[in-house]
Amino acid sequence: MNLSEDVVVAFRDHYGADPDIVVRAPGRVNLIGEHVDYNGGFVLPMAIERAMWIAVRFRPDDEVHVLSCDFGQTARFTLSDFEYQKPHWCEYIKGVAAALKKRGHTLQGWDGAMLGNVPRGSGLSSSAALELAAAKAFCEVSNIPWDPVEMAVVGQEAENDWVGVNCGIMDQMISACGMAGHAYLLDCRSLEGTHVPLPTGVKIVILDTATRRGLVDSAYNERRSQCEEAAAFFGVDLLRDVSPEMFFAREAELPELTCKRARHVITEDVRTLAAADAMRMNDSETLGKLMWESHVSLRDDFEVSNEALNTLVDLAMAHESCLGARMTGAGFGGCAVALVREDSAAAFEREVAAAYQQAVDLEPAVYVTGATDGAQRL
Ligand code: ADP
Ligand code: MG
């Protein structure tokens, strides 16, 4: 799982010398608080054991040379003069450089070898892991003080403005700010976060449906505008500012779909805050129950689940060691996350994977993980 030594070996093989430093930044899974980030609400992600590692050697000039071990490709650019070329892993690194420069930072060049094990495009945010690892590399070689929140914003800017993917801030915030053994309760409006300890005696199990989001972009934009419509109805900018009392007093006045979308967002904020409270009390039963309620709300009100996710979550819930499970991420495929009793996590993995394979004839990837630290120099 830890690739810090492998990345050093890869660096030596490629450059014929030792790197100066190794940096790491993790992927993430969101325990609860789904489709609320763009409504200014609360999310509760944690940094996972899978990450991006970059072995880095300082350069005296302004060239960046990078080997991607996973793609078996090299790329290079000059910091004083670079532009967007075409969709490519190096554009994430250029995007980070551009966002840092825009903030007035002076950047030094480096040689790097990078190696990651966050599955790409599964919804565990391999892109944020890459962005934050690149930001860490630039900050180390250029002597820029590491401000995790600033660097999360740099990563998001790289992805929004350079790569051209319209993502929220959650992935970058947790990859920058994660703490071992803890999830991170993040207020997506103020960007204030609190570390919340994971309950004892449980494991987090990520189950990949092996189905991929198809219509996700158009559905995502549609959900966003439905949320904006509901916020406008209540006379606020963000649904975050509509309390459950305000909502339930007037829900009958809303068009049916708008009402369902808003109901998900407003009740999800309540569940997420309750989940953080349950974690503080070491109450894994309540946490699990809230995760399941979140799934039902995403399935029935927000309507972003799919057959495969529903099947996998139902199979997980039916297992005796499971305290709660839900779809996680944007939806329409991707991963589910389950809270499982530690002593029977191995049986859970095996039996739920087998049952899913039998039910839908797809093999689910399974990742059992603890919560790890955010971006760091090792
Ligand atoms: P995810 O849901 O995993 O974030 P994205 O499509 O947002 O999926 O990001 C995946 C992209 O990030 C890849 O196409 C690649 O350009 C880059 N990337 C992720 N992991 C790696 C890696 N290990 N090595 C090189 N590039 C990577
Ligand atoms: Mg991504």
Topology:
Layout: H1 4-15, E1 21-30, E2 42-43, E3 45-58, E4 63-68, E5 73-78, H2 90-102, E6 110-116, H3 126-142, H4 148-163, H5 170-177, E7 182-187, E8 193-197, E9 202-208, H6 216-233, H7 244-250, H8 256-280, H9 284-300, H10 307-318, E10 322-327, E11 335-341, H11 345-360, E12 365-369, E13 376-377
Helix pairs in contact: 2-3, 2-4, 3-4, 3-5, 4-5, 6-8, 8-9, 10-11
Bound molecules: adenosine-5'-diphosphate and magnesium ion.
Description:
- By secondary structure, the chain is an alpha+beta fold.
- It folds into two domains: 3-197, Ribosomal Protein S5, domain 2 (2-Layer Sandwich); 202-369, Alpha-Beta Plaits (2-Layer Sandwich).
- It contains eleven helices and 13 strands.
- It has helices at 4-15, 90-102, 126-142, 148-163, 170-177, 216-233, 244-250, 256-280, 284-300, 307-318, 345-360; strands at 21-30, 42-43, 45-58, 63-68, 73-78, 110-116, 182-187, 193-197, 202-208, 322-327, 335-341, 365-369, 376-377.
- The protein has a six-stranded mixed β-sheet with strand order 5-4-6-3-1-13, sandwiched between helices.
- Helix 3 (126-142) packs across helix 4, helix 3 (126-142) packs across helix 5 (170-177) and helix 4 (148-163) packs antiparallel against helix 5 (170-177).
- The mean pLDDT is 96.
- Bound molecules: adenosine-5'-diphosphate and magnesium ion.
- Adenosine-5'-diphosphate binds next to strand 6 and helix 3.
